[in-house]
Amino acid sequence: MAAFNKFQDFIEQLGKGVHHLHAAGDTLKVFLTNEQPLATDTQKSDMVEISAGNGYTAGGEDSQNDYTESGGTGTMTAVDITWTASGGTIGPFRFAVLYNDSATSPADALVGWWDYNSNLTLQDGEQFKWDVGTSVLTIGP
Amino acid sequence: MATAYRDPTADESESGTWSGASAGTRYTLVDDYPDASGADYLTHGTTAGYLNLFPPSLFSLGSGATSISIQVLYYDQKTASQACAIAGRLKVGGGYYNAATHNPANGVWTSRTDNWATNPKSGVAWTPDDVNGVGANALQGMGFYSSDASPTIRLASIRLQVTYTPGVYTLTADAGSFSFAGVAAALLSMRRLDVGAASFAFTGSDVGLRRLFTLAAQPGAFSFAGAAAALLANRRVNVQPANFPLTGATAALLAKRLLAVDPASFSFTGADVTLTYTGGGGPPPAPPRAGRKHRALKRVRYLAGRL
To answer: Can you tell me the distance from the alpha carbon of A70 to that of B104, in angstroms, rounded to the nearest whole number?
Structure first.
């Protein structure tokens, strides 16, 4: 289980109303990088995304985020994302980064990241899955 | 399942009789798999032996690949009806491992597949490192082996293939959790306190109205000034009937308030007053007692009426 690591700026932008985590709000995407994210990074351009091609689309994939509240706890959910190398390799990469593709100031505001703990290059036909459970993040008491 | 393959790009070594191309370039006649019609081919025999060939590189399976097996694919035929025996082979970890031989078809190009479900050197399942050319049990090359090459055997092509299940790598993402803690609010000030007339209590210090009294000339109409009162701050005390001023001490309610004191609700202690008559001659005349005369006349009139 890879731990969620928050970008500090997410807390700031959350309070300033930049992030709208519900389905009708913003589009949160996950991209892959081999560059170590820093907690102080604020936007997607602070890291180098892996090259597009062979099954990987620049900008990453839509997490299909949604946000609900129950009993005083807010929960953001998403769906699993799978990349499949086709016609070549994908990577190398190590980190999956969640960001707000709809945010404009800061552009592509960062939310959090997960560490696969080793560099990975998908060979042709291989798959990489960002597997989320019942929630991506919760905000509560 | 997925497959990847390599065609030969170099000769390694040989034994027995081989023809169709010179030594060192024999691979050029069998590097066009499948070449099912034998557009070009090697001829082996009648002396049995082997031909070892190198691929340009080994495979590059991901570390998550599973169910790996290796095949040598080729097309062969023999040139006469007598039996002969040939097989594919692998070079693994410096050793050579032959598949089971078969008797080729006479004059008919036939597809052959020799399969190694496990690593013949290690005796266990192929690993990604093995087929990627890493380690002591690494796959190194392919080739042919014959135990009987008479009649001669023709070989149109050869290919080294790996069959595997591609790796599926999963990053199981734990959820982030954000909690908010509010600080205790100081709800101790900036409030409006509506207090009913009789509902609040306060403590005033004793009032010491001890001196500075002035006796007025008219009975009951004297006025005096009280000493500093214990209700010392920011208060207005309306005291009936003498309406004397006093100063209050700091109140327990900490805020500016209007204290309206009912005439009967404020108590104080005045000092005794000695009223001394200073008129001339003797004691003051007794007040007229008009009532006695009136009652006597009334009695006489009553008795007269009875008579």
So the answer is: 73
- Please give the radius of gyration of chain B, using alpha carbons only, rounded to the nearest integer: 65
pLDDT at B190: 44
Instruction: List, in sequence order, the alpha helices (H) in chain B.
Output: 128-131, 290-306
pLDDT at B274: 58
Distances (CA, A) of A29 to A6, A73, B99, B128, B170: 15, 23, 51, 32, 17
| Among B158, B181, B207, CA closest to B40 | B158
Q: Is the dihedral of CA B38, B42, B47, B53 positive or negative?
A: negative
User: Scanning every residue of chain B, which has its alpha carbon at the shortest distance from the alpha carbon of A85?
Assistant: B166
Predicted-complex ipTM score: 0.90
The minimal CB distance from B64 to the residues A6, A112, A126 is found for: A126
Pairing of strands B176-179, A137-140: parallel
Best residue of B161, B178, B180 to probe chain A, by most A CBs closer than 10 Å: B178
Give the pLDDT means over successive 10-residue stretches in chain B (307 positions).
Answer: 94 96 95 97 98 94 94 98 98 98 98 98 97 97 98 98 94 89 61 47 46 43 46 48 50 46 48 58 53 70 69
Burial class (CB in 10 A: 0-12, 13-18, 19+), B241: exposed
Q: Do B176 and A136 touch (CB under 8 A)?
A: yes
Question: In terms of Cα–Cα distance, which of A78, A1, A3, A13 is closest to A41?
Answer: A13
Record: contact B172-A134, CB cut-off 8 A: no
Give dist(CA B31, CA B83) in Å, integer: 26
Query: Which residues in chain A have their CB less than 8 angstroms from residue B173's CB?
Result: 1-2, 4, 96, 114, 130-133, 136
Coil, helix or strand at residue B291: helix
The Cα–Cα gap between B234 and B250 comes to 8
Task: Give the residue, A12 or B186, on which the prediction is more confident.
Answer: A12
* Adjacent-strand bridge partners of A83: A128
Contact B255, B248 (CB under 8 A): no
**Is the separation of the CB atoms in B54 and B30 below 8 Å?**
no
Q: Which residues of A touch B178 (CB under 8 A)?
A: 6, 11, 137-140
At A31, list the tokens.
């991209």
CB contact under 8 A, A125 and B166: yes
Which chain A residues are closer than 8 Å to B167 by Cβ?
Answer: 122-123, 126-127
